[in-house]
Amino acid sequence: MRARLKIDLATPEPPPQASIDAALRLLTTGRLFRYGEMGGEGSEAALLETEFAALVGSKYCLGVNSGGSAMFLALKAAGVLPGDKVLLNAFTLAPVPGALQHLGAETVLVEINDRLVIDPEDLRLKAKNSGAKYLLMSHMRGHIADMDVISAICAEFDIKMIEDCAHTMGATWNGTQTGRFGIVSAFSSQSFKQFNTGEGGLIVTDNPDIAARAILMSGSYMLYEQHAAAPDAYVFDRWKGTCANHSMRISALTAAILRPQLPLLPARNARWRVIHDRIAMRLRRHQMLRLPNRPEAEGYIPTSIQFFMAGDKIEAVIKESTAHGVPIKFFGGDTAIGFTSRSPHWEYIDNPQQVTKSEQILSTLCDVRLPLGLTDDQADTLADVITQSIDAVML
Ligand SMILES: Cc1ncc(COP(=O)(O)O)c(C=O)c1O
After folding, report:
1. What DSSP element (H or E) covers 73?
2. Ligand 1 pocket, 93 CB below 6 A?
């Protein structure tokens, strides 16, 4: 009997009842804008920022309207100017080079290795050859590079690291949380991340000038004193006339929906690990599949699973697997579909660059979303659908 999965893998995790209650309470007040002209004491957004800063262990935090906006503001507040070169790992999603394009910065693509993370050798080479002074380190699909090595390379070449932690809330390298390596880091609470507010983003930093600039540029008008996880007023005085308002504020409603989810993170992340590792164990047994190696130091939080498929019938396997309830996403396709993309699809990058090694790695890379609600039995079925689809098509 062929296995068949009967749930929709694109089902997002519903916010808890406390989020629904908080949202309804707020709706009845009408105070959906984060600032109040008479003062914003107790604003959901300010409270969220304080709580999220504590969760990551950062001094300052700013809520914004998406992960893409968070990256844009983080980079701009860190000092990236139009024309500046920014190093970026070649395995990432379109909003990441999109943020660089938004800034008018020049993307310098860095190869990845078969752990799906930035290749330190190529980073060193590109840092040297390009003279770039910024690295946008994207922990794509939750794969975390050796951050000790990457941090050392950045220090050697005087490069400022900005982290894209869209998929890594609570994830660690050698016990240090992602978001703590960069001078400023961006997170997302879009529905398929670890928190679900539909859309939303957060920026964290310990640098008071970056924090003040990001807050001003997010569109705080002259109401920035209503922030709590923010630097003192004199820091804003240094910047307030020179930072454009980009209107990327977080809505108070988003903050209200997100706050009750923060305490759930450890339990959610632990469950994601169980689901992932259970499926990974079954997939690893199949001769046509290989999974990226995950070193001991990588405290990964997988909201999806990645695997390399051998053979030349990957698209036929995907069709078969989809017909049995497991839609596999494929990074090797000619066109970007859904939440996959590769650098050749980012045609807006001004200086197209060859990343042959990354292209070769991504040419067999498959990916499946892992909803948090997956039971152990459903996780087993998911793995069985994939392996049986390979057998049906290839063997
Ligand atoms: C690696 C990565 N970075 C950043 C983002 C941007 O997040 P958002 O969709 O909130 O703009 C995404 C979105 O999926 C992503 O996958």
Report:
1. helix 67-77
2. yes
SS3 329: strand
The upper half-sphere exposure of residue 12, i.e. CA atoms within 13 Å in the direction of its Cβ, equals 14
Centre of ligand 1 from the C-alpha of residue 94, in Å: 8
Residues of the chain with pLDDT under 70: 39-41
Q: What is the pLDDT of residues 73-96, one digit of tens each?
A: 999 999 999 999 999 999 999 999
The DSSP-derived string for 330-372 is ETTSSS--TT---GGG-TT-SS----HHHHHHHTTEEEEE--T
CA dihedral 31, 32, 36, 42 (to 10 degrees): 80
Reading across the β-sheet that carries 184-188, which strands appear in turn?
Answer: 60-64, 201-205, 184-188, 160-164, 134-138, 85-89, 106-110
Beta bridge partners of 187: 202
pLDDT digits (tens, 9 = 90+) for 194-240: 999 999 999 999 999 999 999 999 999 999 999 999 999 999 999 99
Q: Which domains does the chain have, with CATH numbers?
A: 17-263 (3.40.640.10), 265-394 (3.90.1150.10)
Read off the tokens for 126.
């590109």
Beta strand segments in the chain, E: 60-64, 85-89, 106-110, 134-138, 160-164, 172-173, 176-177, 184-188, 201-205, 289-290, 298-299, 304-309, 329-330, 365-369
| Residue 57 confidence (pLDDT) | 98
Buried (b) or exposed (e) across 203-217, using 16+ Cβ within 10 A?
Answer: bbbebbbbbbbbbbb
* Residue type at position 64: V
**pTM of the predicted structure, to 2 decimals:** 0.96
State if residue 343 touches ligand 1 by the CB under 6 angstroms criterion: no
Strand partners for 185:
163, 204
Spell out the residues 6+ positions from residue 284 whose beta carbon is closer than 8 angstroms to its own: 290, 291
Q: Which atom of ligand 1 is nearest to the CA of 66?
A: 10
The ligand 1 atom at the shortest distance from the C-alpha of residue 67 is: 10
* Mean predicted lDDT score pLDDT of the chain: 96
